[in-house]
Specification:
By secondary structure, the chain is of the alpha+beta class. It has 16 helices and 8 strands.
Length: about 575
């Protein structure tokens, strides 16, 4: 109007913020949420703290009714001041928030909101906000049902006290004391309670002598009943002259008082059961260094010749001690950028207010000081303690074994049990310690990308355990450190790729790589390193398998019986 108009405005003041009361240690509120109508609730912190016994942290839980439809929404915690932001864009800029489909939980620091806080829940008209990956979780009814009626959901808002810091601080100190006690007691028992007895070794050696003499006698009788060697094995005779003296010395050292007679010497010849002509057909090069692996009665001594050979010191170092050296180097370069990454993500989590950056399990989250998820970090202490304890026990056992050799000059460690190689044991202990460190790093800011840091050393521990089990009775042909960590690198590459694409094509590629890897490892175990591991490895393994299958099929077709594989001792 061009003429001034007098208006009378009547303002009715009402109490907008109605403070709910705590009942049975929790505050309950029931609200209805829709796209057009957000939920806004005010909580007065001093009143809440009085009713909940001044808790260090408050746990806010929002649950949708079981019959309510799915709605992608955003939950925010804001200062109790105007304006109150209820649009998604403004919430993401000026508040602490996280997304929700059906349920969510958030921890609230009362010290940060001393005058109270506002809980705002806004529904999104689209599912993109929630980054839904699984199609079954899509909220297809968010824009309304077939009748055009706006979809709503019934919410239950619960506010309760989180555990006090003193409640789990006492448990933390108790568990730490238990870990310390186990470490001290186990170390003392290993150092002074478990010692090696030279007399027991001598008794064991006498028993082995008796069994060995009986075995030699039975073998001599079997040799006498054999006909002349097959044609291909005549090639093995040429090796006998070069190793006859070595084998005789070996048996003399093992039995000490047992002299090898002429009849026993003849046993060495039929020990070679691998047809040399067959090796030529398979494209396998035999040499003097590997001749001991072709015996019929293959023993641990035949597969641990390099340990006593001064010229093979570097080779044995690569197969044992180098594992823990490489592990420490890899761990330093792997952990430093990882720790920096999670700390930056954790800082971004605090500064932006976006709680979707780190996927904490708020229902069991126990903050302590500046550490938001202390309980999950502390749960990894066991890995570190027992990893250090494991290395300590390995060291003490090795020290006791060396003391036995020093006190008893007649004691020969090469004649008792499997060879002592502690490098892989130390690597396993270090890997266990790093598993605790990297798992704690993951829990600083849990996310899909950082989860790989939690699993890396799990893979490595499994690899090291397999290698140690195999190395125990195959020291000469066990895998060296470089090949082991190359296998770990392949596994980590596939894992990282799976985070970004894990469809049908990925699983086909993964299965092919896995099958080829298992066949290649199996071929190495079967032929004890005769197939050279170079750029032709896949071709060599394929040719070996094809030749073996072809030989067996032809033999069974002609004679009706299956022919034994080339490496029958395996």
């Amino acid at each position: 109007s061009r003429v001034p108009v007098k208006l009378m405005v009547e303002v009715l003041l009402i109490r907008k913020w109605v403070q709910p009361e705590a009942i049975d240690g929790k505050v309950l509120e029931h609200e209805t949420l829709s796209v057009s109508q957000p939920v806004v609730k005010y909580f007065h912190t001093p009143s809440i703290q009085r009713s909940l016994n001044n808790s260090d942290f408050l746990m806010l839980t929002i649950e949708s009714a079981s019959e309510s439809p799915c709605i992608c929404s955003i939950v925010s915690i804001q200062e109790p001041k105007c304006p109150t932001f209820d649009t998604i864009g403004m919430i993401q800029r000026f508040s602490t928030w996280q997304t929700m489909l059906y349920n969510t939980t958030m921890l609230i620091d009362p010290g940060k909101y001393s005058q109270g806080f506002v809980v705002v829940i806004s529904a999104s008209p689209m599912d993109d906000l929630c980054n839904i990956v699984d199609e079954t979780n899509q909220c297809n009814t968010i824009n309304g049902d077939l009748l055009g009626i706006e979809v709503t959901t019934n919410l239950t808002i619960t506010l309760r006290a989180n555990s006090e810091e003193n409640d789990y601080l006492d448990g933390t100190l108790l568990i730490s004391a238990v870990y310390l006690g186990i470490f001290v007691v186990s170390s003392l028992m290993s150092a002074y309670g478990f010692t090696y007895n030279y007399n027991k070794y001598e008794d064991l050696l006498d028993m082995i002598k008796i069994k060995l003499m009986y075995k030699q006698e039975q073998e001599s009788k079997r040799i006498k009943s054999l006909s002349m060697l097959m044609g291909g094995k005549y090639k093995g005779r040429r090796w006998l002259e070069s190793i006859q003296e070595q084998k005789s010395n070996h048996y003399n050292r093992t039995t000490k008082t047992c002299e090898l007679d002429t009849e026993t010497d003849e046993m060495l010849e039929p020990d070679f059961v691998v047809d040399m002509d067959e090796l030529d057909d398979l494209g396998i090069d035999e040499n003097e260094k590997s001749q001991g692996r072709l015996k019929q009665d293959l023993t641990l001594a035949d597969l641990s010749q390099k340990i006593e050979d001064p010229t093979q010191t570097k080779s044995m170092y690569d197969k044992s001690d180098l594992h823990w050296v490489v592990l420490i180097i890899v761990s330093v370069y792997y952990s430093l950028p990882t720790i920096q990454m999670v700390l930056v993500s954790n800082k971004e989590y605090e500064q932006t207010g976006n709680q979707d950056i780190c996927y904490y399990n708020h229902l069991c989250q126990k903050p302590l000081g500046e550490i938001r998820d202390f309980n999950h970090l502390f749960s990894n202490l066991g890995y570190i303690v027992f990893g250090l304890l494991f290395n300590c026990l390995v060291y003490l056992k090795g020290r006791n074994f060396k003391a036995l050799s020093c006190k008893n000059k007649k004691f020969d460690p090469h004649l008792h049990g499997i060879p002592h190689q502690d490098g892989l044991y130390y690597a396993m202990g270090c890997a266990l310690v790093m598993e605790g460190i990297m798992s704690s790093t993951y829990h600083v800011c849990p996310a899909t990308v950082t989860f790989q840091f939690d699993t890396t050393y799990m893979y490595l521990i499994a690899i090291l355990m397999f290698l140690k089990l195999y190395q125990g009775r195959h020291p000469d042909v066990s895998c060296d450190a470089f090949k082991s960590y190359m296998g770990l690198g392949v596994a980590l590459t596939l894992e990282a790729f799976s985070y970004y694409y894990n469809g049908f094509t990925f699983w086909i590629i993964f299965c092919v790589i896995y099958i080829v890897f298992i066949i290649t490892i199996g071929a190495n175990i079967y032929n004890l390193g005769f197939v050279i591991y170079d750029y032709m490895i896949l071709w060599n393994v394929t040719k070996l398998l094809f030749k073996e299958l072809q030989k067996i099929i032809l033999a069974s077709t002609k004679s009706g019986k299956c022919k034994a594989p080339v490496f029958r001792a395996r």
